[in-house]
Each structure stands twice: as structure tokens, then as C-alpha cells.
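Appendix B. Raw example, untouched.
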Amino acid sequence: MGFTNLRLPEHVIASLYKDDLVVMDSIKNKAPVPAPAKTEAAPEKPLFLGNNLQHIVILVNDSNAVHVDDAALNFLTNIIQACKKNLGDVAIVNLAHHALGYAELKAKLAPKYLLLFDIAPSDIKLPFTVPNYQIQQFDHCQFLFAGNMLSMIPDTQEAKLEKSKLWLSLKKMFNL
């Protein structure tokens, strides 16, 4: 599936462009509005990508992307669709731009499921450790720690093995 065939739900598209769309007919005959005074602070990056409708939080750590790069987004989209979900059901949070602990994540996103790629429990201040691909129940939330997402993207035997471990855990987590 390439990006030419990727179809996002209308609510996801609307959320991506909520501050950028302008209806030209409504401003055709109005006088121009002066631009607001510029401030020195940089605009704050959005906390997550998606709508978090089913409280499925996906944590990544990529300092080169706002949320995730295109290859990772395509990979995540395929995983989400295989679990019979869509991008509107999840919240993708990049910890490289939002240093949050579990308490902050819980307060802001109320996760029922947390899928963490290449992130240790201590990175989000959890009081336990758990091996990758083992589902851990804690505080009314199911945790699934996985390896580096980018290592799962190539078409290699190692990547296929990691993807199969992830898929088996996801099937168990979401009762598929």
C-alpha cells in the first residue's frame, strides 16, 4: 500500500488542518485583517497525532520528526489497520519533543493501551521492567514494549521476526 492509496478518515484530515483551512468565499468582500503581533516563543508542537478515540497511545522517540517520519507512519498505519483500528483511534506521541512520564500521559490521554517502540519503562517513570512483546497490566492500562520500529520496516528476516513478535502480542492485546 503506497501513499497514493492511503485514505484517512475525514475527522483525521480535519484535525490535521484545523488551523490552516480558509474558506475564500467568506472573506472575499471583507477588508484584510492585520496580522497578529509576532511573539518570540516558537509555536508549541501538538502533543499527539490522531484523535485518541479508543485511548490507544503509541509512544515513539524520533528527534527528526514532529510525530513520526513517513516510513514509520506507513508502518504504524498498517499495524493499526491490521488491528481493525484507524489513526483516529490512536494518539501517536513523540517523546523526543514531549518528555512525559506515565503520570502525565495518564492525565492528558487516559490510555487504556500503551504501545512503546524502543522506549524502556524507566523512560516514562514506570515502577517495573518487562521484556519486549510481553503484555503488562498496570493501573488499568495494558503495556506492550516493542523494539525499534525502524528495524521492523526493511524486508529482512530479522525485521520479519520482530514484526511477527509484535503481531502475536497485538493479537493477544486486542483479542483478534
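End of appendix B.
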